[in-house]
Specification:
alpha+beta, Arc Repressor Mutant, subunit A, 3-stranded antiparallel sheet, 54% helix, elongated
Length: 106
Amino acid sequence: MIIEKVASQLEALGNPSRLNIYRTLVRAGRDGIAVGHLQERVGIPASTLSHHLKRLVEAGLASQERQATTLICRADYPTMRSLIGFLVDECCADQKCCGEQKEEVA
């Protein structure tokens, strides 16, 4: 994965409002969620939501699809998995993994 792309995605998720929106999209599943329902769930003005959704779409983390008069928003799960994989793929590559260390009893 290209480091600049990862950085852009992490930057997009670094905003608390966008992170909340993204988590709501992830919870909505593959069917997505209508933008009006998304707005109700996250409780922010439509113009602000539109701004944040645009940033998530630009980062490749979400998509939008018009169905008649309804705009459906979806998390891009392959991109999400790729980002998570990038973050954990080399976990503890240079030493024993933290999860393998024995816990010390105090």
